[in-house]
Amino acid sequence: MGRDVFEASAGARAVFEAADDALGFSLSGLCFEGPEDKLTLTENQQPAILTTSIALLRALEERTEVKPAFLAGHSLGEYSALVAGGALSFESAVRLVNARGRFMQQAVPEGHGAMAAIIGAGPDVATLACEQAAAETGEVVSPANYNSPQQTVIAGEAGAVSLAGEKALELGAKKAIALSVSAPFHCSMMEPAAEQLVAEMESVQFSDASVPVVTNVEATANQDGKRLPELLGRQVTSPVRFTDMIGELSASGASRYLEVGPGRVLSGLLARIERRSKRANVCGLEDLEEAVQFINETGI
What we know:
Elements: H1 3-8, H2 10-23, H3 27-33, H4 36-39, H5 42-63, E1 71-72, H6 77-84, H7 90-107, E2 113-119, H8 123-137, E3 141-148, E4 151-157, H9 158-170, E5 175-178, H10 191-200, E6 213-214, E7 221-222, H11 228-237, H12 242-251, E8 256-260, H13 265-273, E9 278-282, H14 288-298
Parallel strand pairs: 1-6, 8-9
Antiparallel strand pairs: 2-4, 2-5, 3-4, 6-7
Helix pairs in contact: 2-5, 2-7, 5-6, 5-7, 5-14, 7-10, 8-9, 10-11
């Protein structure tokens, strides 16, 4: 992950080196050489994705001026957005997401929690299925990601999540797909992680963002650095309101979106939410020139 841009860009190299220094171990070595089972541990994967995302951004900035009107990210991606907007230093962010991943993994014993994607039905169906499953089992299950009008991810205790998937199918959903995750993110089972993260943030310096950042928790634009510890703490146990976030951006005049970081998941979700939007991705070195052209043509 990220080796190509590391080798091609001085700015990207500086980001990986800063991550290694901040964490006190070779995150770059994990990204480039593995082993895969260690890289995919949440406490390593979160800083790896953040680092690769910011490295790609710095490589892009070497090639053209990047002047977004708004910033946003999905779950972990909100930290990348805050770094891009100057609200959080990269070094602070990479240490914070390393701790965040560790706290999340420790919050729930392995195998006790689960997540599933409810596809082909509105969020009301997913919510009702969770309510019915929680009532029958007495266990935790709730919407975790409102990803698009026809896709909602749910999270909670394994039995309740499984039953909620069955309920959703009975209520008309087309699919209920169990997700391969290490913990049930963005639900009340993450409360211990949220408490630890809030304590961790007491020593972190936050600044006002230079560009409005649309938050996961409220789906509204925020530039106030003083609010970030509260918002990021709440994010751990609250659903990611991605559909509402895109609605807020669209209502504010956004029509052109550039996704920076590993993968193209958000662009796919965006296409389902705002079909008329123009979209581009920077997932790796090979995408940089096309992204430069997109920026120059659309004015991002």
